[in-house]
Amino acid sequence: MEGTVPTKPKAWFLASRPKTLPAAVMPVLIGSAVAFHDSAFTPGPALAALFCALLIQIGTNFANDLLDFKAGMDTEQRLGPERAVANQWISEQEMFWGTVTAFGLTVPVGLYLIWIAGWPVLAIGLCSIAAGIAYTGGPYPLAYNGLGDLFVFIFFGLVATVGTYYVQALQITTLSVLVAIPAGALITNILVVNNYRDIKTDRETGKNTLAVIIGHSGSRMEYLILLFLSYVVPVFLLFVYDFSLFILLPLLSLPIAVKNLRTLYSDTCGKALNPLLERTAQFSLIFGILFSIGLLL
What we know:
Layout: H1 8-15, H2 22-37, H3 43-70, H4 92-104, H5 106-117, H6 120-134, H7 148-169, H8 174-178, H9 180-197, H10 199-205, H11 210-240, H12 254-265, H13 274-296
Helix pairs in contact: 2-3, 2-7, 2-9, 2-13, 3-4, 3-5, 3-6, 3-7, 5-6, 6-7, 7-9, 9-11, 9-13, 10-11, 11-12, 12-13
């Protein structure tokens, strides 16, 4: 793979995939907003949850960079952003220790959260880290066997949102689970676009993502369904809970959603879909901010 060789700090920055990191912020915003709604918001645990969410996603990205390379998935035909190990910006050993460091930095913060919220937090943390590694590692890599979307929905959406709420409210409520659905759906859509772009190259390398299994039309439908599900939740909350019309603030993001959907349903393909990947990540954060404001008001 050719390209300008970045400095080592920039290489690590790019390997963290900063354009997708808004996906780690969204669940924490929503979980904290629900905690505030329930008069349970606590700044310390909320910030700790954000710190852990970012580190777990970065650690997962580092592991994915390393393990995809070792599995022979990062070929010259790769359409996505350049990978650090494949481009030899960062060695395999360095990326291994980078992954260990990212996950390891969650330990002291995790101990604080365990002190605050008890041992269930340990189970949440260990499962999240294990799932992050299993995404592209282990004897049955989730991403290579059509389970990546489900993994992202559960851990980066439901677990991250409900976990953020739990470390503040010390309980799990039906509302905290309901508001986690848009987080899981919209973060999963980032992966949908990524895998939709890579259907051809993933099929050639034997990477059986869900997109490879269900094809282009199925992936477009998945993206549409997840978008629809995200907008249904605020409407449902308006009629079932005691929220004001502000809970419908996410509807202001509809023009962005429609634009993204049109791009996916157009003839755009290959590397031309990389801007849509970035916009989908940005959209998840915009939706999350509007949804959080609606939960607060």
